[in-house]
Amino acid sequence: MSIQIQLRYFASLREQLGAGESLVLEMAQTVGQVRDLLLQRSEAHGQALARTRALRCALNQSLCNEETMISADAELAFFPPVTGG
């Protein structure tokens, strides 16, 4: 069963990847698995979401870690550890 989620990017990630995009997953996955999937999506994704970059993530507007499971219709956001106003 596939699920659709919304991705949001903030601060420098927004400059590299845009405000966000939709993603269809073939099965429920963790935040870390989605990040790994996105790394393969394009060169821009690979640079913006590289494992060498410290990033924070939020699922449905609550901070989470990469082990958090994602459910259908979720909103997953990625952003640098410190963002300006």
From TrEMBL:
The coiled-coil regions, if any, are none
Q: Name one Pfam family in it.
A: ThiS
Q: What is the name of the protein in this document?
A: Molybdopterin synthase sulfur carrier subunit
